[in-house]
Write a structure and sequence with these properties.
This protein is an alpha/beta fold and about 280 residues long. The chain has ten helices and 13 strands. The longest helix has 11 residues.
Length: about 280
């Protein structure tokens, strides 16, 4: 199965109300990274498989998604465009689809009202509905028991066990819900794929959180997009080897560390099937 490379446009409004792409570390200390339309055109030309546009402050600020920016991006790119951030109703799904999105992602509102995911799938088709799952690693001073309070333990790099808690509102609010448990429910609700972001790795360029990526990829049959922490091409190779169907990245593209084409050529030489 062809693996996908997906640049991400984390977008918010600056102090002048202008849409800007930003990048931070663990969802905080955001810095300017560029204009969303210009970056979208760049990545389309470089051969990206898809684009993700995330309005990262819409849910927290309780406002609608920036559909005017989505419209401009959709006019200038030919690759599939997925849009998320602030989608909380069927009407919001309709607005982003009308603006030109090929897929729509739901996060906070979907966890608060899982029936909304199912309703969107029934109305628009499951191939268009993506669930974004943000999580944070939780290490406790006790032995974690399988099934305890819905928790599914994950073995970490050092052999210790931990669990991953779902966080919402742009990572600001913990939920007490286990990430693997929620991923299984997302699949049962009919979503097309899961956009998995480890808050611990976001913006660190230290590599994807492989333990949770692998655990969720093994727990569900729908595609899993690894997100959070990509710093070099080897990180993407590692994520694909451990079950990711796509790799999403931001910093390494925005700041010119790699082009999409350079990453794909490296992966191709390593035996990963990518679209050149």
């Amino acid at each position: 199965m062809t693996k996908r490379i997906i640049p991400c446009l984390d977008t918010t409004l600056d102090e002048h109300g202008r849409a800007v792409v930003v990048k931070g570390i663990e969802f905080e200390n955001l810095k300017y990274a560029g204009d969303p339309v210009e970056l979208a055109m760049r990545y389309d030309a470089q051969g990206a498989d898809e684009l993700v546009f995330l309005d990262i402050s819409a849910s927290h600020e309780r406002r609608d998604t920036m559909t005017s920016v989505v419209e401009k991006i959709a006019e200038h790119v030919s690759i599939p465009l997925a849009v998320g951030g602030g989608i909380k109703s069927i009407e919001d799904f309709e607005r982003v689809f009308d603006a030109g999105a090929d897929k729509a992602g739901i996060n906070t509102a979907g966890l608060k009202n899982p029936e909304l995911i199912k309703e969107a799938v029934d109305l628009f088709g499951n191939d268009r509905i993506v669930v974004a799952l943000d999580c944070k690693r939780k290490i406790e001073d006790r032995d974690l028991t399988e099934g305890e309070a819905g928790i599914i333990p994950v073995y970490l790099e050092d052999g210790k066990k931990a669990w991953y808690e779902v966080v919402i509102y742009g990572g600001r609010e913990p939920t007490g819900i286990d990430a693997i448990t929620w991923a299984k429910e997302v699949q049962a609700l009919g979503a097309a794929e899961i956009l998995l972001t480890s808050k611990d790795r976001d913006g660190t360029t230290a590599g994807y959180d492989i333990p949770i990526t692998k655990a969720i990829a093994e727990a569900v049959d729908i595609p899993v997009i690894a997100s959070g922490g990509a710093g070099d091409v080897e990180h993407m190779y590692e994520a694909f080897v451990h079950g990711a169907d796509a790799c999403l990245a931001a910093s390494i593209f925005h700041y010119g560390t790699y082009t999409v084409g350079e990453i794909k050529e490296y992966l191709r030489k390593k035996g990963i099937h990518v679209r050149i």
